[in-house]
């Protein structure tokens, strides 16, 4: 039974700034620090390959004030709005009603809310009262692909059903005002906020790329590399500087056996739908695939226009491919990395 992705739609938060317009706020935040350190931090922002980003809060609120409680309250309110708008767009693209969805997966790791986001969507959009819910909260940047994998497995076992995966993230709500570590600074330089929704279907007559296979790859002894620590001041980013090199070291094991079990080689893959974790990770992937004539131009463009929006980012890349009306038979790989440390892969065929 074929499971297809029928639509993808993003929704952007209401605040937006170019990186050059954020720098004055960064300078104010750095008051009292050594001049050499200030120059280094500003260079990190300028060289992050992120020209613009969106946020659920204005820059002043991110860098100069607001407590964990205040930021999390904003995260809840704005996440619900973003998710409802994004899912409505995705439903409209697929010519569906909210009651056509049988399974709802919401993914987020940048705030805390109970009931989870899906409960609010069921109420506001009057979705089915027997809809199956799955909130995914602790898989970080990988969760957008993870959610699609979970939806695919549900649909594979249930013919003539549809699923929605909604990823909404606000990394700016996790910025630590009193933390001048490189991890906090680098994450502030590369991350932005965003939301995206995906509709999947196991109906035979649906149109869209088919999920031919999926797999997860788990790195041993790498749980320290990425994640959050819960502090009194909020969710403090964990981001090890060895992440790009670790990804590079494992890439052959991540990609080639997965393709081989589908009787494919990387040369036969037409499209790379990769999560843009940051400038260094993008450069690592380009170094690995550029020699093979493959590009990740859409991945780089999403990073440039929106920053890394954690789990939602790869769905922004996927939407760009969905909007291209690709030829029948084209093949693509979706790939994202997240805490654990893990890599999530999906093989698509248009």
From TrEMBL:
Chalcone/stilbene synthase N-terminal domain boundaries: 36-202
Keyword vocabulary terms for this entry: Transferase
Matching SUPFAM superfamilies: Thiolase-like
Transmembrane segments: none
Record InterPro entries: Chalcone/stilbene_synt_C, Chalcone/stilbene_synt_N, Polyketide_synthase_type-III, Thiolase-like
Domain Chalcone/stilbene synthase C-terminal: 221-348
Pfam families given in the database record: Chal_sti_synt_C, Chal_sti_synt_N
UniProt similarity note: Belongs to the thiolase-like superfamily. Chalcone/stilbene synthases family.
Protein name (database record): Type III polyketide synthase
Biological source species: Winogradskyella immobilis
